Amino acid sequence: MAHKLEVEDGLYGIIESPNISRIRFGEYELNTWYGSAVYFAKDKRTLGFKDINPSKRKSEMNREEIWLEKLFICDSCFKYTDDEKDYEAHLLACDHLNKQLGKIMYRDEKYVIRKVRGSKHKMFTQNLCLFTKLFLDNKSVFFTVDYFEFYIVYGTENNKPMGFFSKEILSWDRNNLACILVFPPYQRMHLGTLLISFSYELSKSQNLVSGPEKPLSPFGLVGYLKYWSSIITRELVFGKLSDAKVVTLEEVSKVTGIRHDDIVMTLKHMNVLVNNDGELFVLKKILQDWAKRNKVSLNPLLKKDCLLI
């Protein structure tokens, strides 16, 4: 759910262009992708909400569109400040440096996924959402974290949060995911696929056919089409449906946990549908060729024996 709400002194939430020039996130320095008004008080010069020293003023703006040259964000708890000394002092005393929140839901040799309730750890999840707004142009909550669960992936070696997805505790549309982000330093490591796969395993454990909240962001849609394509092809060519001569849409949905409309959209994207007298079919030979061309793996990234749901 995007937050683009007009308030008395301007725009709340997302701003079209970045207003924070760079962030320091642990050992990384990053450019922001989007602007966010939520970090700031209404005067646009004072960091708001949970700044270590809320009365502190930032330096004069060098350019009108930049409100802050550098924001320092803890890569363990997402607390933030514009003062480097405060930041360095916090890193030495951060409560989450070697202690992660939440319940372990998945663990393998590389990654751990933990469930964190927004209502139980409000400051942590709100600061996580503020961080997210710098890299997503929609689907980021802030005030309503009480109604969400956050599934955060940690590296077993660095004990750092690397990405997450949020999920409504009660979703009338049975969505299994509201917002997903792999943090910029950890992208291109297949963590998005890991989190998406876990969201579907979570739904399957509840006997639900589910999917993400719509509309998807452009990056989100790319990630989901890649995941859906691999899962559908794997089941039809190598998996539980591989021996069937005829398979219905309902059967594909039941085995994969993917919604009907998402399956149809994916097959259209793959360009594997054949029109026969007004009816759409997928021929196994076409899928086999597609699987070979795209190197569909027989082994899913998420290891089933590591699920602790």
Automatic annotation (TrEMBL):
PROSITE patterns: MYST_HAT. The keyword Cell division does not apply. GO terms for cellular component: chromosome, telomeric region; NuA4 histone acetyltransferase complex; nucleus; SAS acetyltransferase complex. It is found in: Nucleus. Its main location: nucleus. Its EC number is 2.3.1.48. The active site is at E213 (proton donor/acceptor). It comes from the Eukaryota. Keywords: Acetylation, Acyltransferase, Metal-binding, Nucleus, Transcription, Transcription regulation, Transferase, Zinc, Zinc-finger. Residues 15-309 form the MYST-type HAT domain. One of its GO terms (biological process) is subtelomeric heterochromatin formation. Pfam families: MOZ_SAS. GO terms for molecular function: histone H4K16 acetyltransferase activity; zinc ion binding. It is an enzyme of class 2 (transferase). The keyword Phosphoprotein does not apply. Belongs to the MYST (SAS/MOZ) family. This is histone acetyltransferase.
